[in-house]
From TrEMBL:
It comes from Ruegeria halocynthiae. One of its GO terms (molecular function) is dioxygenase activity. It holds the Pfam family Glyoxalase. Keywords: Dioxygenase, Oxidoreductase. Residues 5-137 form the VOC domain. Gene3D superfamilies: 2,3-Dihydroxybiphenyl 1,2-Dioxygenase, domain 1. InterPro entries: Glyas_Bleomycin-R_OHBP_Dase, Glyas_Fos-R_dOase_dom, GlyoxalaseI/FosfomycinResist, VOC_core. This is Catechol 2,3-dioxygenase.
Length: 180
């Protein structure tokens, strides 16, 4: 048995229409499907919802639920805002910069470009408060991934024992962190 791919990733949204329009305008995602019911199919509980699906490219689907009868959505106060996010791949750095300029021109506050060595990213929040990342591969990505692959198990084992950052791949963010 093996998973083929992610079917969809689902998040909650504050306003379904606003979410569809924002992702269409800001990230050029097409609205592909809407499902609305008065009962949850999996649990059968009465709870009206709007479930919408957006084309995130290459067979990837981003979905949202608007839940009007539930308390206002929040976030885990013990998890930093930078942890939970969804990242989308863009073709190259030129495309990344074009998205950054487009988002900023439309009033979206953008963090980055952040240099992760293997890829480069920008970060921003959607109108629901979800953190979104756009990432493009570095031209040397393949060689760096091979280097990381060779130490992943050693790093995991050391982390598991010590709960301290192993230094096997400290080169990864050295350039970015030296900017500080």
């Amino acid at each position: 048995m093996k998973i083929e791919q992610i079917h969809h990733v689902a998040y909650r949204c504050k306003d379904a229409k606003e979410t569809v329009e924002w992702y269409g305008k800001m990230l050029n995602m097409d609205f592909v499907l809407a499902i609305a019911e008065d009962h949850v199919p999996s649990t059968h509980e009465p709870d009206p919802y709007m479930h919408l699906f957006l084309d995130a490219g290459n067979g990837n689907v981003l979905a949202f639920f608007e839940l009007p009868t539930k308390p206002e959505m929040g976030r885990d106060p013990n998890t930093p805002k930078w942890v939970q996010h969804i990242a989308f791949k863009v073709k190259d750095r030129d495309e990344l910069i074009a998205f950054k300029n487009h988002l900023e021109a439309n009033g979206v506050e953008v963090l980055g470009v952040t240099d992760h060595s293997i890829f480069h990213s920008i970060y921003f929040f959607d109108p629901n408060g979800h953190r979104v990342e756009l990432a493009c591969p570095d031209p040397e990505e393949e060689a760096m991934l091979a280097r990381l692959d060779s130490v992943k198990w050693d790093m995991l084992e050391e982390w598991s024992r010590t709960k301290r950052a192993p230094q096997h791949a400290d080169w990864l963010h050295a350039k970015e962190l030296s900017k500080g």
